[in-house]
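Lab notebook, design round three. We kept the backbone fixed and only want residue identities now. Task for the bench partner: fill in a sequence for the structure below.
Input structure tokens:
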């Protein structure tokens, strides 16, 4: 059963065993801020070992560094470990020639070895030619077992784009009605979420979220309400950091695999889930905003529905990347100093830039404040801050989590782990109620 606390609880996606740990690499000025000594030395040893062996170039290092960005479990350190293992597997044995042996002699002696290697590699190449299992294999099996989307898991075509005809077939199976006329045009991610939300009888709930944001002057995109509902229900998921190419923007064509994940999730929902969502949508309001709060939150709201991408700041974001995009990369006329307030890129750095005496408590939150969450709640140190977002007001905030950029309520895990907040508008000298240019 999905409850108000668990519908968006990041427990499985944001917390790893043993808590969150940053990833450290002694390279080009990257810092080790907040990394416990044991973890720092362990990862540093792994880095130096791979670097000394000539197996860790700048490209691999940069990729590993991006795993360091927070909002996940210990995948950063694991990425380095896996990198070493993968490279070891691809090491080629070297044949040491005898002293004084001519190159031509070595060549002819290697020919039989080459023939044997090619013979052994043939079956492996044939095996590699077979399609790898889809990331959504469990969901595909569930959907096929329910007789949906063709009912055949073995011939599912997970990477094919979903067509409008196929989507209407899914909707008809859920509603018991005849499918609406449709063609074979591809369906976008936003269109899929909107249709599934409607199928669940939550169209009005989605509109209430949209209406609340519009009433506050946020100019939300049309997908705002349906994306809020879809992500609160868990119809979207975050792909592992090594598979970020699978992440989709709202206007991109959705695959049958993504659809299977959503439909499998719908099969798991109970009536209490939709009842809860209807209740929270009816209570959703945004307080009256000052001009600068409105400008900042307009940018944040426009990104609802974007995917979670580790280290991303453009076409998808991790939690700190989302805040970075809204406050650092967005150009605000008349507020040029706003982008200079945030110095560091990670949650550890952004949360630690605020002096302890200037930290904002949960009872003093205002819209557009940047809020931080840590392993020990208000007692957390900056090194223990592992998530962040932007406060919307009335107990709601916008963040990038395992469901992508979405709305969440400040309750459950978030309430227990709330650490403190900071107010970039005030830090940059902009009065909250001052008229914006």
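Proposed sequence:
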């Amino acid at each position: 059963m999905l409850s108000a606390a668990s519908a968006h609880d990041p427990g499985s996606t944001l917390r790893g065993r043993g808590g969150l740990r940053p990833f450290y690499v002694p390279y080009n000025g990257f810092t080790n801020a907040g990394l416990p000594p044991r973890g720092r030395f362990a990862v540093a040893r792994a880095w130096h070992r791979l670097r000394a062996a000539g197996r860790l170039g700048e490209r691999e290092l940069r990729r590993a560094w991006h795993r360091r960005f927070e909002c996940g479990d210990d995948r950063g350190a694991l990425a380095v470990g896996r990198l070493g293992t993968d490279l070891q597997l691809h090491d080629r044995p070297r044949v040491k020639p005898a002293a004084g042996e001519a190159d031509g002699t070595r060549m002819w002696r290697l020919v039989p070895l080459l023939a044997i290697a090619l013979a052994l590699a043939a079956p492996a190449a044939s095996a590699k030619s077979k399609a790898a299992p889809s990331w959504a294999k469990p969901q595909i099996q569930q959907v096929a077992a329910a007789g949906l989307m063709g009912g055949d898991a073995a011939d599912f075509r997970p990477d094919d784009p979903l067509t409008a005809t196929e989507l209407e077939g899914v909707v008809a199976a859920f509603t018991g009605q005849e499918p609406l006329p449709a063609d074979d045009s591809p369906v976008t991610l936003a269109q899929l979420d909107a249709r599934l939300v409607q199928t669940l009888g939550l169209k009005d709930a989605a509109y209430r979220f949209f209406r609340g944001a519009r009433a506050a002057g946020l100019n939300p995109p049309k997908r705002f309400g349906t994306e809020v509902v879809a992500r609160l229900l868990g119809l979207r998921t975050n792909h592992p950091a090594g598979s970020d190419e699978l992440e989709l923007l709202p206007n991109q064509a959705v695959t049958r695999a993504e659809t299977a994940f959503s439909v499998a999730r719908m099969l798991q929902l109970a009536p209490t889930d939709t009842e809860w969502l209807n209740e929270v949508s009816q209570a959703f309001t945004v307080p009256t905003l000052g001009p600068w709060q409105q400008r900042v939150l307009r940018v944040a709201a426009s990104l609802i529905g974007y995917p979670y991408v580790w280290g991303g700041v453009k076409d998808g974001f991790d939690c700190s990347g989302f805040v970075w995009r809204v406050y650092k990369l967005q150009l605000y006329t008349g507020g040029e100093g706003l982008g200079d307030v945030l110095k560091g890129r990670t949650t550890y750095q952004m949360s630690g830039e605020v002096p302890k005496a200037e930290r904002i408590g949960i009872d003093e939150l205002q819209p557009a404040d940047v809020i931080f969450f840590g392993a020990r709640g208000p007692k957390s140190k900056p090194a223990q801050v592992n998530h962040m977002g932007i406060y919307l007001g009335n107990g709601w905030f916008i963040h990038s989590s395992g469901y992508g950029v979405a709305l969440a309520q400040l309750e459950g895990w978030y309430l227990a782990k709330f650490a403190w907040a900071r107010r970039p508008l005030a830090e940059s000298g902009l009065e909250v109620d001052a008229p914006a240019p």
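Keep this in mind before ordering anything: Residues 1-129 have pLDDT under 50 and may be disordered.
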